[in-house]
User: What shape does this take?
Amino acid sequence: MDNKLSLGIDVGSSSVKVSLLDIKGGECIASSTNPSDREMPIFVPEKGFAEQDPDMWWNYVKAGIRDVAGKLSGSGPAKDVLSRVACIGITYQMHGLVVTGSDGIPLRKAIIWCDSRAVNLGRKAMEGIGHRKCMEHCLNSPGNFTASKLAWVRVNEPAVYSGIYKAMLPGDYIAFKMSGKFSTTYSGLSEGILWDFKRDEFADMVADELGLDKSLFCEAGPSIASGPEECVSTDAAMESEFGIRKGTPISYRAGDQPNNAFSLNVLDPGEIATTAGTSGVIYGVTDKRNADRLSRVNTFLHVNHTGTDCRYGVLLCINGTGISNSWLKHNILNDSKSYGQMNDLAATVPAGSDGMFVIPFGNGSERILENNMTDAQLCDVDFNRHSTAHIVRAVQEGVAFSFRYGLDIMRESGIKPEVMKAGTANMFLNPVFRTTLATICDTKIELYNTDGALGAARGAALGAGYYSSRQETFASLKKTGTTLPDHSIKSVLDETYLKWKERLHILCNIN
Assistant: This one.
């Protein structure tokens, strides 16, 4: 194991992060985020649409690999560093769709996770299959997930559809670029609503109802490999360009939220992970095949699921999380303040933002709102009392209120967290947000020294056999802080939340 490295790649919708893990020491020895000075562009050709260029992701992956190698190589060849890479893990933005020809070249931009164009096709598929049968077998409505997005291409872009050789998730595309092989995972099929949980196999009923050619989907394997035969490996092009040896196993692959849970050692029933990047997520692990009848929260195969040891991830997703903070920074503050300065500004305003509140849903249809799409709202503004600082705090509180709203739905399904684990990153760097979230949810928050790319690197080392146990995999995972509910502000936050919830239900016509 001496000197061996694990390469972790995290393909988000804002940036791509690459990390190198020293397998023996268990520590991250180099990392890179690209682009470093802005978010990656999202193309919005129509309201509710959201697309990105898959080759933009790949170019940033390559830049990140070069960056981390350069940080470690000193005056020597970067390829000497990368020749020590023994395994690779990939995590990626979930529910996206990349379609390519047989040469692997994308036929159109990727339709990404927050795109809402396929909602109606998903609803019709649910009706065609039958609500009870669909929920019994798939645990989710096809909604605006990957299968429905591919059906949208079939209906609206028949020339593109006729040229498709394979339909992939974003992480599958990056794995293809590194291996030359088309592949996916069982967990990946479940996030596209292409998994029959009752039969533990591909969901033919969904593909048939949506009119999809099943040959377009890649062969699947486990997220965490348990042998070379279960994963694809790097090709000669990777060795030629980077020095990563041909045949290096890509031994771990998972969507960003199952991977966030894995990176936090959240693997057993009752454990909870959360994150607040572009989107906000609470992800709970269970061994029960439960489903929310309205599909407001969604159930997928967790990364450590097996046929004999069932593990499911129940996912609450809020589209309008970090993006609302980003929109505020760029458009209201005109980039005059950093995120850290915005956090300081929010701290100058009392909890409850003096009666102002923000409904942060402005990034496509929201599953917790039954796939309704409502624009963001700035509510109860008093021109004589409220300032920019109030808006900043109200946005952060609005995101925390969204988490509370979704968590109440998760609690209905039996997931009742006492502790939420998060990486020390994104909005969890902000004390105001952390305290608001812990207080409004009445839950302790624990922070850990990890992120998506590092989690993927640890998963790769486990899948390639360099770690033999869960204990060894997470030996270097350390708690960096704890946030407890602040009971001195609970009453004012509860009062503001009730106003927030009442206005939200009026906007979405929810009884």
